[in-house]
Design goal:
2 domains, 8 helices, five-stranded parallel sheet, FAD/NAD(P)-binding domain
Length: about 325
Amino acid sequence: MKTDIVIIGAGPVGLACAIETQRTGLSCITVDKGALVNSLTGYPTNMEFFSTPDLIEIGGHPLVSSRYKPIREEAIDYYRRVADRESLQMLLYERVAGLEGTSGAFTLTTDKRSIACKAVVIATGFFDQPNRLNVPGEELPKVTHYFREAFTYTGREVCIIGAKNSAALAALQCHRRGAHVTMVIRGPEVGPTVKYWIRPDLINRIEEGSIDVLFQSNVTRIHEDRLDIETPEGPVTLKNDVVLALTGYHPDYGFLKSFGVTIAEDAVETPVFDPDTHETLRKGVFIAGTVCGGRHTSRWFIENGRHHAALIASKLADRFHADVPA
């Protein structure tokens, strides 16, 4: 296959990059190892976005919702319809394997084919890379780093590890579906960045005793029927059926480095790129969306990450339409 630009990642930001690139007159193929907007398909059923519809729209296409804030299913269908309307060429369920060559003359390989292209945009997000606990027993089937819905946890002893939005929502939903919930939080309080309409609800449930919590605590071992937890008062053993380790995610650094992307040697591990163009130190390789923030995963999201598309498309158009040596 041959195209001008390959976009890696068919999430909202990747789709925005494809749209803006095509509108410059350059040809474009979007490749994703999973489904269209694969990360969104992994969100909780009927999850309500924190953003209003206009803030997650791409390509100037309106997102019509019956709610003030759209739910997961509405957003997934919206991005599907936008991709169809823009006639985006996509290769889904196709894993990218590597990139050879230089800007203007790249060969990108997948598990199914080779694609000749001039430049590559990486918009892979981070949802596939959970921050692991690194404790014995984490590999047990009862442990998951993702929360889909609470109904399967009715009547069960559920431990939720984490203190941010995902953990807070999961705790409230599991409690309201009849689970006995215990939260294990390594800090002294529910995360201060939890959304203002969620945090008071969770704090009230904790204060009334509906949801148990262990602050400044860490799970040290996971057993089939219990957990070992280190608390300020000493070791505690907790009866347990399910562990939701909602401790956040990070970019796939191995994948980024294999494409020649330089990673800053600091705690945030931010990919190094030009903020005006989003081009990395490997000429012809660009990054967009949440992956730009490294481990600071709340820095970029759909609302502001979608704007990376226009910056990148402008640079691509200037370089390859002007017929300047790449």
